[in-house]
Amino acid sequence: MRAMVLDAPGRPLRLADLPSPTPGPGQVLLEVLACGVCRTDLHVVDGELPNPALPLIPGHEVVGRVTGLGEGATRFRIGARVGVPWLGWTCGICAACRSGRENLCQEAGFTGYTLNGGYAEAMVADQRYCFPISEGADDVATAPLLCAGLIGYRALRLAGEGTRLGFWGFGAAAHIIAQVAAWQGRQVHAFTRPADEAARRMALDLGCVWAGASGDAPPEELDAGIIFAPVGALVPEALSRIAKGGTVVCAGIHMSDIPGFPYRLLWGERMVRSVANLTRRDGEEFLALAPQVPVRTVTTVYDLEQANRALADLREGRLTGAAVLLP
Ligand SMILES: [Zn+2]
Ligand SMILES: [Zn+2]
Q1: What pTM was estimated for this model as a whole?
Q2: From CA 114, how far away is CA 85, in angstroms rounded?
Q3: Residue 211: beta bridge partners?
């Protein structure tokens, strides 16, 4: 099978011809139909996340078709369509796993980071962490839901019940979650890079009530904020825009350092928190919700061999919406 392989962080991915993997006990073998490109892939490839399992096939927004079953894998039949998310394995016995917080499992395995992912023609996945995908759904449109959608949805939940929201960074995750928030009757304010007129236009198209450049004052005080951009300087900026008691959620796995800021920005019971990974419950909830909205994803498609170009376009902010690789 063809695959894009990371040999060492900081190096471009290498196109390789590898033997197709063999599904182990409880695993399914998948033909990859589409794989989204997430900002986390960029953090892995650029070496901002420690200890990837090298050599590594990245990719954790996978829509695939089951083509083989490992021993005891009975959950899906051959030919079924499934989605593979970032959470690829958990221990099931640690304190986090036993308290419904498997997203915080110390032993967790992550697709496209500590487990091989979907930048390939085929992959294996533990059947327990796959999601069923309906036959009617479009592969390319569905792929970004599997991380940008799922983890974005978890961030939205952690932002609380307030109705006036601010989203900083309007890429793959924000463009999906803005539609969910608008459908829930909330007012989303989108903050983008100053030069990114296209992102502001997309935000307004997708139901945001206001779009401006980060640093601009929104027309009203906000109840909560979600920072999707990996930029620590946005934390004090977002805190300065939210009401007392409001939460600022940092939705990315990596962020540049947060600069010092005056205590008065946090005063008034404002909170700053991160969101880490996902639970299978987040996935089930979100994937049931997405068709009701219905969520419309804006995508740019690349061939598998163009993965380096897709990553570069994401790094340089040249993308509108989400990038998806087609093997
Ligand atoms: Zn655990
Ligand atoms: Zn991701």
Answers
A1: 0.96
A2: 13
A3: 190
Whether the CB-CB separation of 170 and 190 falls below 8 Å is answered with yes
Beta partners for residue 187, in sequence order: 164
Structure tokens of 224? Answer: 């909560």
Mean pLDDT along residues 152-170: 97
What is the per-residue pLDDT across 51-103, written as a single tens digit (0 to 9) for each?
Answer: 999 999 999 999 999 999 999 999 999 999 999 999 999 999 999 999 999 99
pLDDT tens-digit readout, 218-252: 999 999 999 999 999 999 999 999 999 999 999 99
CA 277 to centroid of ligand 2, rounded, Å? 8
**What is the rounded end-to-end Cα distance, in angstroms, of the chain?**
10
Helix, strand or coil, per DSSP, at residue 189: strand
Measured in Å, residue 147 CA sits from the centre of ligand 1 at 20
Rounded to the nearest angstrom, the distance between the alpha carbon of 42 and the centre of ligand 2 is: 10
Kindly give the distance from the C-alpha atom of residue 324 to the centroid of ligand 2, in angstroms, as a whole number: 12
Q: In angstroms, what is the span from residue 155 Cα to ligand 2's centroid? A: 13
129 CA → ligand 1 middle, Å: 14
Domain ranges of the chain: 2-147+278-326, 150-274
Q: Per residue in 272-297, is it b (16+ CB within 10 Å) or e — as a string?
A: beebebbbbebbeebbebbeeeebeb
CATH of domain 2-147+278-326: 3.90.180.10
CB 39 within 8 A of CB 252: yes
Q: Does domain 150-274 have CATH number 3.10.20.310?
A: no
In the reported structure, the alpha carbon of residue 286 is separated from the centroid of ligand 1 by a whole-number distance in angstroms of 22
Please report how the helices 148-158 and 280-289 are oriented relative to each other, as an axis angle in degrees rounded to 10. Answer: 100
Ligand nearest to the CA of 118: 2
Quote the CA–CA distance of 80 and 33 in Å, as a whole number.
12
Query: How many A from CA of 99 to the centre of ligand 1?
Result: 10
